[in-house]
């Protein structure tokens, strides 16, 4: 597997990644090594990491889940590091999904004005999405990723062996981002549509990482082409927020899949996307995700969430839409009635 180079760090796969980490440890004057895990990655991923790491480390365990991606957890870890007399020359290794890598990156970047950190993403979503782009951060109350900074890991190791213990539901959630990368770049689209069993495929995973890398390299701070990565996310985030308060919460990729179907339909209506393409996107996603039902009240709430999003100007929602595969337009105004119509298309 090739090494993927971002502007500031490298993403290495499996043994190449561990070999580099072991070299790094041997050739630097690190004073101590800490591995951040949650209860799941402690149980399911740490054994493999221990087999591969040639050095001794201490484990720091936090509770899993988005609700713990907050300042309280950071305080616990900062206190832990302080009580252990961890100095500026220690290394933090984040072994887990996007919650661990985002929050671990934030904790490391702010502890003693910044210590080195390495990310080892263990979910499909964190491999293909959170491993690139240098975003670190935590949630504030219910506002996602409200506090954080762009900060580069020293390196990233992608080891698809960790996916063996991940639930099918979590795999599918990550796959939604793989499919999104293929839509916005018009790469691998046909291959994915014709083979719905490629979520674990290492080449597909590597190529999805490379696609996001290309976009981020052009526009790290999201002024321009990085916005393309938000395809499916305007409606997707609103759907995710709505279900946050329901019993049956949706995973990020599950909500984004709905967003991509709806936004493909909107792309047909106002941006010239062919309906056949939208249907192809919808039919493919239907193979991975069960249909979610939306009441009229749900759709009203989703439209309001989108309309009154603080990022809008004069309450006009701005969308990232397709003209075709790989041909994207950003900041497109969309009427809320069309958003409601798109849910009829999703449901049909
Ligand atoms: N920095 C970025 O650019 C970026 C991009 C996308 C998402 N994110 C962030 O990532 C987070 C979502 O990431 P996620 O989907 O990985 O969620 P997550 O970190 O909550 O992981 C999902 C669940 O899987 C468990 N898990 C992790 N690895 C496992 C394994 N190998 N086997 C079994 N279980 C395992 C976790 O303990 C957790 O319960 C969000 O907070 C989101 O904001 C960041
Ligand atoms: Zn996403």
Secondary-structure topology with pairs:
Layout: E1 4-5, E2 10-13, H1 14-27, E3 32-38, H2 39-44, H3 46-52, E4 58-62, H4 71-83, E5 90-96, H5 98-110, E6 116-121, H6 124-130, E7 135-140, E8 143-150, E9 155-158, H7 168-185, H8 189-194, H9 202-218, H10 233-244, H11 252-271, H12 275-286, H13 296-307, E10 318-324, E11 327-333, H14 336-347
Parallel strand pairs: 2-9, 3-4, 3-5, 5-6, 6-9
Antiparallel strand pairs: 1-2, 7-8, 10-11
Helix pairs in contact: 6-7, 6-9, 7-9, 7-11, 10-11, 10-13, 11-12, 11-14, 13-14
The structure holds nicotinamide-adenine-dinucleotide and zinc ion (ZN).
Zinc ion binds next to α11.
Outline the structure in words.
The structure is a single chain. With 348 residues, this protein is α/β, with parallel strands linked by helices. The chain folds into two domains: 162 residues, Rossmann fold, CATH 3.40.50.1970; 180 residues, Up-down Bundle (Dehydroquinate synthase-like, alpha domain), CATH 1.20.1090.10. The chain is built from 14 helices and eleven strands. The chain has a seven-stranded mixed sheet. Strand 7 and strand 8 form a beta hairpin. It is globular and about 60 Å long. 44% of the residues are buried. The site of zinc ion (ZN) has 5 residues, from helix 11.
Q: What is the residue-mean pLDDT, rounded to a whole number?
A: 95
- Name given to the CATH architecture of the largest domain: Up-down Bundle
Biggest sheet layout: 7 strands, mixed
Distance between the termini: 41 Å
Count of helical stretches: 14
Instruction: Output the helix-strand order.
Output: EEHEHHEHEHEHEEEHHHHHHHEEH
- Could you tell me the CATH topology label of the largest domain: Dehydroquinate synthase-like, alpha domain
Give the helix/strand class.
alpha/beta
What's the CATH first level of the largest domain? Answer: Mainly Alpha
- What overall geometry do the principal axes of the alpha carbons give? globular
Number of E-state strands: 11
Radius of gyration: 20 Å
Q: CATH superfamily assignment of the largest domain?
A: Dehydroquinate synthase-like - alpha domain
């Amino acid at each position: 597997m090739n090494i993927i180079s971002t502007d500031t760090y490298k993403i290495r796969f499996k043994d190449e990644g561990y070999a580099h980490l072991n070299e790094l440890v041997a050739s630097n004057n690190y004073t101590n090594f800490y591995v951040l895990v949650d209860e799941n990655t402690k149980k399911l991923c740490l054994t493999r990491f221990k087999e591969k790491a040639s050095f001794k480390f201490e484990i720091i365990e936090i509770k899993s889940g988005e609700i713990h991606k907050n300042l309280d957890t950071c305080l616990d870890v900062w206190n832990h590091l302080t009580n252990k007399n961890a100095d500026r020359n220690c290394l933090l290794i984040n072994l887990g999904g996007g919650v661990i890598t985002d929050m671990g990156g934030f904790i490391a970047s702010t502890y003693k004005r910044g210590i080195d950190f390495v990310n080892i993403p263990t979910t499909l979503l964190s491999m293909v999405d959170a491993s690139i782009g240098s975003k670190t951060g935590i949630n504030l109350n219910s506002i996602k990723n409200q506090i954080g900074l762009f900060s580069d890991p020293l390196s990233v190791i992608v080891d698809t062996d960790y996916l063996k213990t991940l639930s099918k539901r979590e795999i599918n959630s990550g796959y939604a981002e793989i499919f999104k990368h293929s839509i916005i770049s018009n790469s691998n689209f046909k291959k994915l549509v014709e083979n719905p069993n490629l979520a674990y495929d290492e080449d597909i995973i590597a190529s999805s990482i490379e696609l996001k890398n290309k976009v981020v390299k052009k526009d790290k701070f999201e002024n321009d082409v990085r916005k393309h990565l938000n395809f499916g996310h305007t409606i997707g985030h609103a759907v995710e927020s709505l279900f946050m308060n329901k019993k049956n919460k949706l995973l990020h990729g599950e909500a984004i899949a709905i967003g991509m179907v709806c936004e493909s339909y909107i792309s047909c209506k106002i941006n010239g996307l062919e309906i056949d393409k939208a249907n192809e996107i919808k039919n493919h996603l239907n193979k991975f995700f069960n249909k979610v039902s939306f009441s009229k009240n749900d759709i009203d709430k989703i439209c309001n969430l989108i309309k009154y999003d603080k990022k809008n100007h004069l309450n006009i929602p701005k969308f990232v839409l397709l003209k075709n595969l790989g041909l994207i337009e950003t900041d497109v105004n969309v009427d809320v009635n069309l958003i409601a119509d798109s849910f009829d298309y999703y449901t049909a």
